[in-house]
């Protein structure tokens, strides 16, 4: 049994018992961890508000034989602007779910941690509509699942790339076409995302709403294909009621 | 009996055993009174057709009260929240029980809640203000923002209960998020 301290993003919480919570943390040095926050649902709890999903916190844990117990939390950033905007909340919760579903417990992944914290900070500062799509493809890249976008997955040609098929792992030309259609603008944006020119890619998406939707749908579909399950939090608000 | 009691929330096998032996030790009438009370409650309690809280008739006592302000509706997650607000005696309007809150991480959208029913009430009754009294957490705040987006275009005033420090608490122990909200929602001191 030992105590450990780490920086973490709170991915989600589950209610347990009368006033406790199980908190799923994505820590910088120890990967995804689960820990109990005792009494955190009481209004008098010092931990309660500091352990809301989305928060970037400095956490102290007491590692027991089974679940760790949270003994101290300090907020580094609670991304207040994200919490005050419904569209930003929906994007941020999808990012949290992607990280939760694509990581294993206690497997350190600093690249993914940096990606998540930077994406949340960007979303907090300004509304970048294309950020969710870019986040999906950067996650795939870090996990070693970058789709092939420079040449056709079937015949290897670099001409007339018109379709994207998740099952074959990338783009297809006009002759081999299957899966969903992809625009030239979306292909150019994906190239920017994979080459690390995120600011340029987000700038392109912010001016063309259709492009943002195309990149987001491609990213979510590819991730869902690799995860083997649907992302629950990716709900379209416009279809509600 | 021990198995049945241990199904209750917060009651484990050992507590269930203790309760069972206690009921056996008490006079027979005590145990039968409890059994009768459970039977009566389960038989009589239904859901109010207007606000969806627990009721013994078609409409609950609050919805039937003509003295309540019918143009002011407080939206709560569950009947237990309604009871907590009623205890304050500070609210004289009507209620609407949503049956939970929007939780994107669990895929709970408005279809799983009584949002359609709220919209129907807003359109048929002359409601002027909706107070969103969901829990002050990510799910509760998401619900409040969603309802505001849905109802404000209909000309309804949508308000949210204030968040802040508990009475009797110490400021130095307050967390940043609560303190930030307390400062944002500050009020002028009135003598």
Instruction: Tell me the radius of gyration of chain B.
Output: 21 Å
Query: How far is it from the N-terminal to the C-terminal residue of chain B, by CA?
Result: 59 Å
Largest sheet of chain A: 5 strands, mixed, barrel
Report the portion of residues of chain B in β strands: 5-15%
CATH superfamily of the largest domain in chain A: Recombination protein O, C-terminal domain
Give a quick summary of the entry.
Chain A is of the alpha+beta class and 241 residues long. Helices cover 37% and strands 24% of the residues of chain A.
Give your account of this protein's structure:
The complex is a heterodimer of chains A (241) and B (191). Chain A has 241 residues and is α+β, with helices and mostly antiparallel strands. Chain A has 7 helices and 8 strands; from the N terminus they run βββββααααβββααα. Chain A has a 5-stranded mixed beta barrel. In chain A, a hairpin with a 3-residue loop joins β1 (2-16) and β2. Chain B has a 4-stranded parallel beta sheet with strand order 4-3-5-6. A two-stranded antiparallel ribbon of chain B has the order 1-2. With 191 residues, chain B is of the alpha/beta class. In chain B, β3, α5 and β4 form a beta-alpha-beta unit. Chain B starts with a helix and ends in a 7-residue tail after the last helix. Chain B is built from 8 helices and 6 strands; from the N terminus they run αααββαβαβαβαβα. Classes of the chains: A alpha+beta (241), B alpha/beta (191). Chains A and B meet through α2 of A and α6, α7 and α8 of B.
């Amino acid at each position: 049994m030992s105590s450990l301290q780490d920086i973490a993003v709170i991915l989600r919480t589950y209610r347990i018992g009368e006033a406790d919570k199980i908190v799923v943390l994505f820590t910088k040095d120890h990967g995804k961890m689960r820990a109990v926050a005792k009494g955190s649902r009481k209004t008098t709890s010092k931990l309660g508000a500091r352990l809301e999903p989305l928060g970037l916190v400095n956490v102290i844990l007491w590692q027991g034989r089974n679940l760790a117990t949270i003994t101290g939390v300090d907020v580094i950033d609670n991304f207040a602007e994200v919490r005050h905007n419904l569209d930003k909340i929906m994007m941020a919760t999808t990012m949290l779910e992607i990280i939760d579903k694509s990581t294993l417990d206690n497997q350190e992944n600093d690249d993914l941690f940096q990606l998540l914290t930077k994406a949340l900070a960007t979303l907090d500062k300004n509304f970048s509509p294309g950020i969710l799509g870019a986040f999906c493809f950067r996650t795939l890249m870090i996990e070693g699942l970058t789709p092939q976008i420079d040449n056709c997955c079937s015949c290897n040609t670099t001409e007339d790339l018109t379709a994207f098929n998740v099952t074959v792992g990338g783009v297809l030309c006009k002759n081999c076409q299957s899966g969903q259609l992809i625009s030239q603008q979306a292909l150019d944006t994906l190239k920017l995302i994979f080459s690390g020119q995120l600011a340029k890619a987000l700038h392109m998406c912010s001016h063309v709403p259709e492009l943002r939707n195309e990149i987001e749908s491609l990213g979510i579909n590819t991730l869902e294909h690799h995860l083997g399950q649907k992302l629950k939090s990716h709900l379209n608000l416009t279809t509600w009621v | 009996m021990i198995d049945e009691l241990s199904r209750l929330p917060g009651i484990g096998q050992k507590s269930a055993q203790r309760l069972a032996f206690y009921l056996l030790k008490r006079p027979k009438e005590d145990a039968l009174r409890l059994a009768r009370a459970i039977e009566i409650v389960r038989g009589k309690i239904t859901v109010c057709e207007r606000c969806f809280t627990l009721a013994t008739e078609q409409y609950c006592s609050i919805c039937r009260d003509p003295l309540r302000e019918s143009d002011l509706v407080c939206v709560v997650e569950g009947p237990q929240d309604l009871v907590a607000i009623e205890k304050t005696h500070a609210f004289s309007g009507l209620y609407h029980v949503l049956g939970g809150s929007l939780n994107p991480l669990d895929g709970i959208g408005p279809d799983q809640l009584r949002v359609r029913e709220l919209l129907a009430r807003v359109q048929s009754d002359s409601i002027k203000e909706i107070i969103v009294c969901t829990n002050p957490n990510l799910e509760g705040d998401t619900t409040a923002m969603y309802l505001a987006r849905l109802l404000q275009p209909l000309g309804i005033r949508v308000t949210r209960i204030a968040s802040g420090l508990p009475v009797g608490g110490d400021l130095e122990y307050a967390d940043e998020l609560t303190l930030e909200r307390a400062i944002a929602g500050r009020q002028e001191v009135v003598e």
